[in-house]
Specification:
There is one protein chain. Helices cover about 35% and strands about 10% of the residues. The chain is of the alpha/beta class and about 240 residues long. It has a single domain, classed as Rossmann fold (3-Layer(aba) Sandwich), CATH 3.40.50. Helix 1 packs across helix 7 (about 175-185) and helix 7 (about 175-185) packs across helix 8 (about 210-220). The longest helix has 16 residues, at about 105-120.
Length: about 240
């Protein structure tokens, strides 16, 4: 049997990152999951990340504490209202206030550090350039540039020519395609949390951009969303 290679998986506890974790396992990687407590208002996602990591039996799951809330500048880390009930045209407009400045750059830097310690040459991240909210750090050109930078910055790459690869298996998939892929791999979407503004009990609002995109994806996939919603019943799309 082929030995599994270690890989760092950025795991938020949401739909996309949970699917990416399942894909990494399918590709015979030994997953080391990394989540972040960064001052986000939707910290219930960390509970979801823990459940996902346990259900998929990762090698190790770490939660990194950083405080991006000290800078603010985002509806996810500051006292800025989360946009609700926006249509697709609005979502496709300017970069929304839910964008957290430099978040993926920060996250990938921590993942890169852990990968070096683990002697891992692979990092997985669930960025998507199709059904997403317009974040600049979810684009293919950003990932390509970061990977190039990473291979100028690590001891293994410089001394041993062991290049790091950043895997983005969802980059060109629609939300429906992601969901269908995850179901085939046995992802339990009932324990994931995608909402930007959930209740303290973990109920999804059903009205933020993330909820709209998730609900739309499940409807197009022909599958009922098993997540618990505050008002939509988990099966209503208002796009």
């Amino acid at each position: 049997m082929q030995q599994k290679k270690p890989a760092v998986i950025l795991l938020s506890g949401g739909l996309d990152s949970s699917t990416v974790l399942a894909i990494a396992k399918e590709e015979n990687f030994e997953p080391y999951a990394m989540s972040f407590r960064y001052g986000q208002r939707h910290a219930v996602e960390l509970e979801a990340a823990g459940k996902v990591a346990a259900s998929m039996e990762v090698k190790k799951h770490v939660v990194v504490d950083i405080d991006l809330a000290m800078f603010g500048g985002s509806a996810l880390t500051d006292s800025i209202e989360v946009p609700k009930d926006r249509d697709e045209e609005e979502m496709a407009g300017e970069i929304p206030v839910t964008y957290v400045p430099a978040r993926n750059t920060v996250f990938l830097s921590f993942a890169l550090a852990w990968a070096e310690v683990l002697n891992a040459k692979d990092i997985f991240i669930g960025v998507n350039a199709i059904d997403y909210s317009g974040y600049p750090d979810c684009r293919p050109e950003y990932i390509a540039a970061y990977q190039e930078m990473a291979n100028l910055a690590t001891k293994a790459a410089v001394e041993d020519n062991e290049k790091l690869k950043i895997h983005t298996p969802l980059i060109n998939m629609t939300k429906a395609e992601i969901i269908q892929r995850g179901y085939k791999l046995g992802v339990d979407y009932s324990i994931t949390n995608s909402c930007y503004d959930p209740t303290e009990e973990g109920l999804a609002c059903g009205r933020c951009d993330a909820c709209h995109l998730r609900l739309k994806g499940f409807e197009e996939a022909g599958i009922k969303d098993p997540a618990k919603y505050l008002k939509t019943g988990g099966n209503t799309v208002r796009l």
